[in-house]
Design a protein that fits this description.
By secondary structure, the chain is of the alpha+beta class. It has one domain (9-129): Beta Barrel (Small Protein B, Chain: A). The protein is 30% helix and 34% strand. It has a 7-stranded antiparallel β-sheet with strand order 1-6-7-2-5-4-3.
Length: 155
């Protein structure tokens, strides 16, 4: 894993994304949030486990991301799983439309983070892995781990 850029702090990650999907391309996009959602995110209280992105009306929307209500904030009328608009350049949206038109590709949020005080979402264009591909990836990871252990014992 590469070192974090200066001024960047991760609020939530989608740990299942790399297991369930093969990530083909990544995009950084802003996200439209309310004030209490930002405060809740800063506290690290969010879940991307069942979330996904969808293109509707020429705009990209993040659906089903759970941000619980902020403890000291107004809870009345708050929907923790509301659809949130993602902010991208028109060229990027057009590129996403072209990529997701291909059969079997999906838009998966990989992580939510703060970059220089602004909330960002890392969005991945992904193709779903089949069961045997998941098992193969686990076997390769275990094999690599065993080789590193053996090399460590020799030293």
């Amino acid at each position: 894993m590469s070192p974090r850029p200066e001024g960047e702090r991760t609020a939530a990650t989608n740990r299942r994304a790399h297991h369930d999907y093969q990530i083909l391309d990544k995009f950084e996009c802003g996200v439209v949030l309310t004030g209490s959602e930002v405060k809740s995110l800063r506290g690290g209280r969010a879940s991307l486990s069942e979330s996904y992105a969808r293109i509707r009306g020429g705009e990209v929307w993040l659906e089903n991301m759970h941000i619980p209500p902020y403890e000291q904030g107004e809870k009345r009328g708050y929907d923790p799983r509301r659809d949130r608009k993602l902010l991208l350049h028109r060229r990027e949206i057009d590129r996403l439309i072209g990529q997701t038109a291909e059969k079997g590709l999906a838009l998966v949020p990989l992580r939510v983070y703060f970059s220089h005080g602004l909330a960002k979402v890392e969005l991945g264009v992904a193709r779903g892995k089949r069961q045997f591909e998941k098992r193969q990836a686990i076997a390769e990871r275990e094999h690599k781990r065993e080789m590193e252990r053996a090399a460590g014992r020799r030293r």
